[in-house]
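Reopening this ticket.

The earlier resolution said the output was attached, but the attachment link was broken on my side. Pasting everything inline this time so it's all in one place.
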Amino acid sequence: MPIAPRLEALTFDLDDTLWDNRQVMVDTETGHYAWLDDGLAQWLAERGTPAARRFAERFPLADYVARRQALADAHPLRRGDFTWLRREALLALLGDYGLDAASAAQWADAAMERFMTLRHRVSPYPEVDELLDRLGRRYRLASITNGNVDVRRLPLASHFPVAIAAGELLAPKPHPRPFLTALARLAVPPSRTLHVGDSWREDVEPARRLGMQAVWIAADAPACPLPPGVHRLAHVRELPALLTRLGD
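Inline output:
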């Protein structure tokens, strides 16, 4: 059996790999929409033009979600650019609410600023900072995310000299482009790189197709045989022990 090349680089998914993203997204989704609803009501009252119905009453959160999905369907190249989809959906809803174009843009931008503030209130697992610090002394590190977290706004930024936002490339995972972009910036071939992520479809499969090794973070997945070069872990904290077992 051929010996796998020695690893030189590790690439990491972010959401649900380095932190639990579920509650963050719930709080962000509801929080920025409620902020917009309150702010808009106050602004209209101060102008002496209060609306008969508040914004979120006329357009519940489900309408916002549906408008984003319709935009994604209409603009398939932008389907992974979640920031663009959200802003455009807000612009359309605010226009339907009766705001002029300039006011709609002002409030959409303000709501997205609030969204991004809440979106970055992530809490990496307690072990992650030390783990990345240790791994960064041995490997070149990169992050590859479909989400709209800007890792440069996080304390973890120092660990990731290469950070790829797939949505901004208009090629969300499982498209190979974000992986190839990371590999090019790392200047490391796929055979010497291991990708770590929680999604089989968006992380494991595209990494394998490019010739990378892959770690699948899947605590609840049923036990089953895995293809060569794919390793299942329950938590990212187990990664150093795996690398040791791999002789790296």
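Reporter confirms the inline version is readable. The longest helix spans residues 22-46. The first strand starts at residue 9 and ends at 12.
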